[in-house]
Amino acid sequence: MSSESPPPVAAASLSADPVTGELQNQSSGVNSRVKLKIEHLNWDHSFVRELPADPLTDIVSREVLHACYSRVFPSAEVDNPVLVVWSQSVADIIDLDPKEFERPDFPYLFSGATPLKGGLSYAQCYGGHQFGVWADQLGDGRAITLGELLSSKNQRWELQLKGAGKTPYSRFADGLAVLRSSIREFLCSEAIHSLGIPTTRALSLVMTGKLVSRDMFYDGNPKDEPGAIVCRVAQSFLRFGSFQIHAKRGKEDLDIVRMLADYTIKHHFPHLENISKSDDLSFSTGEGNDDVVDLTSNKYAAWLVEVAERTASLIAKWQGVGFTHGVLNTDNMSVLGLTIDYGPFGFLDAFDPSFTPNTTDLPGRRYCFAEQPDIGSWNIGQFALALSTAQLINKKELNYAMDRYGTKFMDEYQAIMTKKVGLPRYNKELIGELLNNMAVDKVDYTNFFRLLSNIKTDPNVPDKELLVPIKAALLDIGRERKEAWTSWVKRYIAELSGTGVSDVERKASMNSVNPKYVLRNYLCQSAIDMAEQGDFEEVRRLLKVMERPYDEQPDMQRYARLPPAWAYRPGVCMLSCSS
Ligand code: AMP
Ligand code: MG
């Protein structure tokens, strides 16, 4: 806890919400919202308190053994840093008064140049499989946690600066981040959250005023770019690799896997702490008694199953909105099932199952759109192996968790696709043929589903008019393809007519899962181009649009357009890991 506790909230003080104008009672009631100054945030550093530390605090690149973190401090240089953009909704969850963003010292505090009172900074040690190969120690090479907050809703939030300078985990790199990648991370964190998908969040983005050299195309032509720092916020930034590193180090570190698992369950899966005997948690995996997996007898197995299911559910949601992460290495897999580490990601424009926004991955397309569900399973397999190495789970429990990943993914994916087409039951053939048609004609994944809700359940529409509601998504298709689509729409209408759901009702339901606006890479690029010229309006506008992705937003229709020709230049839709 901070030495100075926050002032008591004034009894029944009313203030207007800066966004909605709504009057709020700060002390009680539905709209009560605590608004604290930075100095009064309620710190509680459980990670540092409960887990083993690196005894050294220097930032020389090195192997850090028998420790979960190193106590280091932000060291990125700043020169007149400026606040580029911030998120009101993230401020709300950590109880930060929105007025604090106006403080002249805000860019210094949230670039790490001025230490936060009550904070306790560190970099986390983790490893990971990169592109299927064990890479050993990676760790927070440029992310520095400022500390953990406990909110008035008793939620734990870790604040972390990305691009705040070197740590022992920086290896050969500089510990910094550039404006381009920071804008992408900031906007996409908030866009993914507003789509209803679990993710780490972004509170603020500060431009440091210093230049950072990056070879964006890895072609030997480095360029100076503006440096920037995002303040990321999540309940925890623990990754699969946070556990793997200790399991891989063998005997001497196995107790750390257990400590870390205990810590994670205690703080982030508390419902598993004392799981009592319950029929719900005992499962038969085969015929005999030996095949029963009793999750109540092993909290680690119950936890692994939950991590597997959260991961499956996360990836099903990505598939639903056409999000491709780009670098699904095990160090980029959150143990809480959050989308984490935004790099060369991309939302599908034209539907293409092999879409691979990360140029580094082009030779193998390991992390392309359609592979994500299988990669999630592979990654869960690696995480489970780490727990098994530390003897926290047995083989049967491991296999069982893998099965549950598969079942959960299929259940959720089918439910999402069913809702996307507005049907009451999953129809494998109809959805399969639709996706096939979309791939053949390179149909825009976002706009198509939005338009599909305009189809009327009317069996009397003449054939030549059947495609009218979706024609804006079917560009340049020939006669043969028109016939294929007409036949699909006919079958679709036949399916719809049996449901008894009105067109109006179905449209509303479909629009609640089919976003009108997604953060297409070209939209990000336009905002980046302007920001690099010192104009942050487009970044801020894009944030506002992406905060309401399912709403029509009549003034913002241009943000639903397909990518223009310039978007196909390198560095816009196809990205490298250079950031
Ligand atoms: P990523 O591909 O962003 O998930 O990063 C993989 C690893 O490289 C992580 O350990 C990062 O902390 C580290 N890393 C990436 N960029 C930098 C950088 N500019 N400076 C130091 N470490 C970095
Ligand atoms: Mg990473």
Structural description of this entry:
This protein folds into 3 domains: about 40-235, no CATH class; about 245-280 and about 295-420, no CATH class; about 425-535 and about 550-579, no CATH class. Mean pLDDT is about 95; it is low at about 1-30. By secondary structure, it is α+β, with helices and mostly antiparallel strands. Strand 1 (about 15) and strand 2 form a beta hairpin. The protein has a 5-stranded antiparallel sheet. A two-stranded antiparallel ribbon has the order 1-2. It has a two-stranded antiparallel ribbon with strand order 3-5. It contains 15 helices and 15 strands. It binds adenosine monophosphate and magnesium ion.
Which ligands does the model contain, each kind named once?
adenosine monophosphate, magnesium ion
Low-confidence stretches: 1-30
Total DSSP E strands: 15
Separation, N- and C-terminal Cα atoms: 35 Å
List the helices and strands and how they pair.
Blueprint: E1 14-16, E2 23-25, H1 46-50, E3 69-70, E4 82-86, H2 88-93, H3 106-109, E5 123-124, E6 127-130, E7 133-137, E8 143-150, E9 156-162, H4 179-194, E10 201-214, E11 223-234, H5 240-248, H6 254-268, E12 282-284, E13 292-294, H7 299-321, E14 323-324, E15 346-347, H8 372-389, H9 395-421, H10 428-440, H11 445-452, H12 479-497, H13 503-511, H14 521-532, H15 537-546
Antiparallel strand pairs: 1-2, 3-5, 4-10, 6-7, 8-9, 9-11, 10-11, 12-13, 14-15
Helix pairs in contact: 4-14, 4-15, 5-6, 5-8, 7-8, 7-9, 8-9, 10-12, 14-15
Bound molecules: adenosine monophosphate and magnesium ion (MG).
Residues 331-332, 341 line the site of magnesium ion (MG).
